[in-house]
Design a protein that fits this description.
The protein has 255 residues and is of the alpha/beta class. Helices cover 36% and strands 15% of the residues.
Length: 255
């Protein structure tokens, strides 16, 4: 059975962010992930993580101005200096908090735009070099256009090709089952084919993005396949609880 990490950006929203670490541990989770820790000092986040006895699975690099609608800046021409600063911030936080993985968000740009593609490749190479030097893993994630219209990296095969181009052993694919099903389907075959480059997995039911076992996919078979491909990392529970977080956790005893 996979090891599950609670996503504190989507789960345990009944309490303030810094209290979600203890809440996740109280519900039996041994690890957490979340979108961003940057609203709080890294030392404070690390303190809450350690006090709860949790492992950190992953968080994202700064995405630009999230409140204004930015969803990453790696593919945005003219924002290279902002990207470099965000990378510095992410690595500094990663070292204090102790995350093994950082996710680099691409941003909103046309996938076919040659300038956006060139900028993304340059920034991906920069991020891979810097995280490699720091001993931190780096992942990129294709995101579906229904949830995030206009997202630059919206194709799993393209993500795998980019990873191959970079030729950096610590650069991997973030395989989100929910996004995969909406973008391409064929989840289990993709898990098998992409296993060598998968660095992190996330789960949510399709189509409502609620708890596993509540959607159109057979999540039990997917979990069995995750074990079968030899994946040893955490599976991030990046779902929106249909009701309260605790009320929806019964799925964990049924997989």
């Amino acid at each position: 059975m996979p090891k599950f990490a609670a996503n504190l950006s989507m789960m345990f929203n009944e309490v303030p962010f810094l209290d979600r670490f203890a809440a996740a541990a109280d519900c039996g989770f041994t690890a957490v992930e979340y979108l961003f820790p940057y609203d709080y000092p890294a030392e404070l986040v690390a303190e809450r993580l350690q006090a709860a006895g949790l492992a950190q699975a992953l968080f994202n690099m700064p995405p630009g101005d999230w409140a204004a609608g930015e969803r990453g800046i790696a593919a945005l021409p003219g924002r290279e200096a902002d990207f470099a600063a965000a990378l510095d911030t992410a690595i500094a936080y990663a070292k204090v908090i102790g995350t093994p993985l950082l996710h680099m968000m691409a941003g909103l740009a046309q996938a076919a735009d040659p300038q956006a593609s060139a900028t993304y490749r340059e920034n991906l190479k920069r991020a891979a070099d810097r995280t490699g030097e720091a001993g931190i893993g780096l992942v990129i994630e294709p995101i579906n256009g229904r949830d995030m219209p206009g997202y630059f990296l919206n194709d799993f095969n393209r993500a795998v090709d980019l990873i191959g181009e970079m030729d950096a052993g610590h650069l991997k694919l973030q395989f989100d089952v929910y996004h995969r099903q909406i973008l391409h389907g064929d989840v289990i075959t993709a898990l098998r084919q992409m296993a060598p480059v998968i660095g992190h997995i996330q789960i949510a039911s399709v189509p409502e993005r609620h708890e596993p076992l509540t959607g159109e996919l057979d999540d039990r078979k997917i979990f069995a396949e995750i074990d079968a491909i030899g994946y040893e990392g955490y599976v991030g529970c990046e779902y929106r609880p249909a009701a309260g977080t605790r009320e929806g956790l019964s799925w964990m005893s049924r997989v």
